[in-house]
Amino acid sequence: MKFKRLFYLTFRGPPPGFTHGLIIGLSKKGWSGVIISDRIDHMDYPLSFGNFKVLYTSPSYEGGSLIKYPSLMNDALRREIFRRELIKVLSNDIEPDIIFIDGPIGVLFTQIPAFFSILGSLSMHKLKPIVIRFLGLNSLYTVYWEKNKAIRFYYRMEEIFQQQMATKTVFLNKLLFKIFPRLSYKAVYIPIGIDIQVFSPMPRPITSSKVIVSFVGRLSKENGIHTFIEAVKKVKKDNVKFLVVGSGPLEYLVMRELKGFDVQILSVAYRDMPQIYAISDVVVSPTFLEWPSTVTYEAMACGKCVIKSKGGIDEIITDGVNGLLFKPGNAEELAEKIRIASQDEHLRRCCGENARTLIVKKYNRELEVSRYDSLFLSLIS
Taking the complete model, does pTM exceed 0.90, yes or no? Predict the structure, then answer.
């Protein structure tokens, strides 16, 4: 069988969710190629996924490297020189049919060196289709985007960049069609897909007689951890226990502010997340970010009642039907939603069942893989 060749570039370590699922799925459909990824040095990332080889752009990483780092340079510059030279070498070797760039976030402010290296390195492939998977903008709050001139200017520059570089842009969020109207002609909507076998309803272990409300994610401002902390203080219900699952720059704040409350802080591996959802009755996502929260999709796939801030991926949650919504940053409203969910088992069960049905029907991993396969094939046929 002749493989279809994909050159896959990501600016994060290949997460066990999207990258693993997509690459394994595409491998089954006859795709092969190379993944170039940043590497977080303390994590154990693999050297291959399916039919794909993985190479990492980390100065401390030697496995699979084709280019030696210059010795007398700072880390960032060494990384970008390595990335550029590595792409050149591989471009000559694999002759890709598709160049796929996953997740450029904050291009103008945080990824300028990386993207100039990409543009230079891929200049020899002007006739090759370039597909960019665009998540959204990190740390820029959706609720302000229409009023803030600086953010509107940023969006416009991002839009121009995508217009110049991408053959197709993949939006994970329908809101992005509104923010980037000039990209509509080349944008396609491919939402997150969840492995519904891994993330599925399981019997709740009897760990507590209380209703367990979980915050899952990075403990940071943009993920709404301040809102969650204030909501916990306002709930004051004897029948509620809180779990905080994650780590991040504001972990100290959680420990300090919620000392004395019925709150447990956990840090678990991604493979253990189905068990976290299993012990949770309610999952809270108070994020300010416009990009889709994988936690929301995973929790819904597990049949859990999700309480989420409005904005971003409202299209998958109907308030009171398959989840609950509240205004971003409004701790009082979040606390009230927690009270309602904790007191109404029937509501939690109905929301969870409806959420699971929606994910299985529209947001499953097989459907996501098929959408990318169809997109890539349409560009090379």
Answer: no
